[in-house]
Amino acid sequence: MMTHDAPSGNTKKMAQLQSVLAEILAESLRRGFFGRAVVELSVQDGTIQHIRRTVERIER
Q1: pTM for the full predicted model
Q2: What φ, ψ does residue 42 adopt, rounded to 5°?
């Protein structure tokens, strides 16, 4: 991940993103999970504005 020219406002959001990604991976990589896991970033002028996570489970 390249961060040398990222705006300083991204520091907190990048830590939040790493946490969200770890959580969503832990949830979705369990045996018995069927579905879709999405992490979506909204970026404006190089600054992360929003982080959205979506987990869709398929009932089997």
Answers
A1: 0.77
A2: -110, 115
